Automatic annotation (TrEMBL):
<dbReference type="InterPro" id="IPR027417">
    <property type="entry name" value="P-loop_NTPase"/>
</dbReference>
<keyword id="KW-0067">ATP-binding</keyword>
<dbReference type="GO" id="GO:0016887">
    <property type="term" value="F:ATP hydrolysis activity"/>
</dbReference>
<dbReference type="Pfam" id="PF00005">
    <property type="entry name" value="ABC_tran"/>
</dbReference>
<keyword id="KW-0547">Nucleotide-binding</keyword>
<dbReference type="GO" id="GO:0005524">
    <property type="term" value="F:ATP binding"/>
</dbReference>
<dbReference type="InterPro" id="IPR003593">
    <property type="entry name" value="AAA+_ATPase"/>
</dbReference>
<protein>
    <submittedName>
        <fullName>Ribose import ATP-binding protein RbsA</fullName>
        <ecNumber>3.6.3.17</ecNumber>
    </submittedName>
</protein>
<dbReference type="InterPro" id="IPR050107">
    <property type="entry name" value="ABC_carbohydrate_import_ATPase"/>
</dbReference>
<feature type="domain" description="ABC transporter">
    <location>
        <begin position="11"/>
        <end position="248"/>
    </location>
</feature>
<dbReference type="InterPro" id="IPR003439">
    <property type="entry name" value="ABC_transporter-like_ATP-bd"/>
</dbReference>
<keyword id="KW-0378">Hydrolase</keyword>
Length: 263
């Protein structure tokens, strides 16, 4: 695991605010993602996790604050700008097409051509290489249709798709939701391998077991504010539950997050 003291964040938000009309959802958010580390983003429903992820992804423009990538302020007008930086998001619904095979899904909207026709051989090779780079052994053929894959295999394909384009930061939204025990472990192992390749990984999860197994850092949100951003090794399960449910943990000596406006 990379110590954040010895490196700079690859992606950073400083004092970010976001409102929808009169509803102030994100309050002065400071959030950092480090290369080679898994940062878990946790919080109860309504804490602001989805809004924060969509702000990072360029779906929701931030109202005030600074978005930095590799130490430099950047202006984000939409998802294409974020993708150009090297940031990919794997949403909970995975955005895969059941009627297409793995190769077709991994290159959907980014198909490679040669002399005006699809370069099927090159895309198939790149898809295999992406899966191989993550030590994926659960997929037997890249020409399987997605409809024939298990939930864990689908999640694997979605993650491999995100790294196909040399991504530097990958955000994973509840990647183990609705998966069985064995499939969950496969995905958690894959998340760790992704970080070990130097990618900055953000894991959005309600499953604290997964968080404590794979995350290097934990950022807890409470009513649109950062309740704590700590090393996983420095907190206990019960302390994180306190941060999620009360915005504070007395045993950590952290002040309570100020109550946000009604959401």
């Amino acid at each position: 695991m990379v110590d954040p003291v010895s490196t700079e964040p690859i992606l950073e938000l400083r004092s970010v605010n976001k409102s929808f009309g009169v509803v102030h959802v994100l309050h002065d958010i400071d959030f950092r993602v480090y290369p080679g580390q898994v940062t878990a983003l946790v919080g109860d429903n309504g804490a602001g996790k989805s809004t924060l992820v969509k702000a990072i992804a360029g779906i929701h423009p931030i109202d005030t604050g600074t978005y930095l990538f590799e130490g430099q302020p950047v202006t984000v007008h939409g998802p294409n700008d974020v993708a150009a930086l090297g940031v990919e998001v794997v949403y909970q619904d995975l955005a895969l097409c059941d009627n297409l095979d793995i190769v077709e899904n991994m290159f959907l909207g980014r198909e490679l051509t040669h002399r005006g026709v699809l370069d099927e051989a090159r895309m198939e090779t790149m898809a295999r290489d992406a899966l191989k780079s993550l030590s994926v052994r659960t997929v037997t053929s890249v020409r399987q249709t997605v409809s024939s894959l298990s939930g864990g295999q689908r999640q694997t394909v979605a993650i491999a798709k995100s790294v196909l384009w040399n991504s530097k930061v990958v955000l994973l939204d509840e990647p183990t939701a609705a998966l069985g025990v064995a499939q969950t472990q496969q995905v958690i192992d894959l998340v760790r391998r992704l970080a070990d390749q130097g990618v900055g990984v953000v894991l959005i999860s309600h499953n604290l077991g997964d968080v404590f197994e794979v995350a290097d850092r934990i950022c807890a949100l409470y009513l649109g504010r950062v309740a704590a951003d700590v090393k996983t090794a420095d907190v206990t399960h019960s302390q994180v539950v306190e941060l999620i449910t009360a915005g504070r943990s007395g045993s950590l000596g952290l002040a309570p997050a100020e109550a946000a406006e009604s959401m």
